[in-house]
Write a structure and sequence with these properties.
The protein is an alpha+beta fold. 46% of the residues lie in helices and 19% in strands. It has helices at 7-54, 61-68, 76-139, 265-276, and strands at residues 179-181, 185-190, 193-203, 206-210, 220-226, 232-243, 255-263. The chain has a 6-stranded antiparallel barrel. The two termini are 71 Å apart.
């Protein structure tokens, strides 16, 4: 089983090392102060020893050696131990640096692998969208040719639909707006839930979103989409009408009509320009 050292655990170990190094520095400072105090005491003892020697007293070799030593200089075996400790510390720092570099390389490999997965998902999503567009194109009914020698038969009357399932008079916002066909992905948010659908048409007052995630009438929503011209549009709106899927006509798309409440001036100009560059549609009833 691989040993896992997360960021928190490594940080704890670093803090332990820093604590030990701080204690070592404090101890070294205390030793230096003790050595300086010993120098001062030796300076006070030296005149007395010299006076005794002048009077003919014999000074022991151990005392002479003690007075001749320098407390500020470590003995050879202590100096060797200090040098060995410094080399071990340098080796430990180099090992920690190599561990950090290995961790950085591992994170880079994981990031590259994740990017490759995301690219694959994006390509799969594009392929799926292309297949959906092809299926929608094949599902559109083909109008039969009109015979010039016989009067065109009137279509049978359609049963009236519920008021909530049809667009209101004048389109989404109650006025007659020029509307244009628009087939782009629309992301919308309602009550902190995110959904995705596809627009079928758009006007300066709102747009129709084909989706199975139909929100209740009057629900506030926020929509985001990109026009084919490249402009990004983000707007707030309200669900003004909804349309359920039809069992009799599979070409009827379920969705909802959203009226714009908040639309920036740049976004409104982009929508206006897009609509007037295309063949308009109208809702008149």
């Amino acid at each position: 089983m691989a040993v896992r050292h997360g960021p928190d655990e490594l940080q704890v170990k670093e803090q332990q090392l820093e604590g030990w190094e701080e204690k070592l520095a404090q101890r070294a400072q205390a030793l230096a102060e003790s050595a300086r105090a010993l120098v001062q005491r030796r300076a006070a003892v030296a005149p007395l020893v010299n006076q005794l020697k002048a009077q003919g007293a014999v000074v022991a070799p151990q005392l002479q050696e003690l007075l001749g030593a320098d407390p500020l200089l470590a003995s050879p075996h202590i100096a060797a131990a200090v040098q060995q400790a410094e080399e071990a510390r340098r080796t430990a720092v180099e090992s920690r640096m190599r561990a950090a570099q290995a961790w950085e390389e591992d994170l880079a490999r994981q990031a590259n692998a994740l990017n490759a997965v995301m690219q694959g998902l994006a390509q799969a999503q594009q392929q799926l969208q292309a297949e959906l567009d092809q299926r929608a194109a094949r599902a559109r009914p083909v109008e039969p040719p009109v015979s010039l020698g016989a009067p065109k038969a009137k279509p049978p009357p359609q049963p009236p639909r519920a008021a909530a399932a049809a667009p209101p008079a004048g389109g989404v916002d109650g006025r007659v707006h020029n509307r244009a066909k628009l087939r782009v992905q629309v992301d919308f948010e309602s009550d902190h839930n995110f959904f995705t659908g596809f627009s079928a048409d758009i006007s300066e007052g709102g747009l129709f979103v084909a989706t199975v995630n139909i929100q209740p009438l009057g629900s506030p929503v926020e929509v985001a989409f990109a026009l084919p011209t490249g402009e990004q549009v983000v707007a707030r709106g309200v669900v003004r009408w909804i349309r359920e899927a039809s069992d009799r006509d599979t070409t009827v798309q379920a969705g909802m009509g959203i009226q714009f409440d908040t639309l920036s001036e740049d976004a409104r100009d982009a929508v206006h320009s897009f609509i007037h560059q295309r063949e308009p549609m109208f809702y008149t009833d």
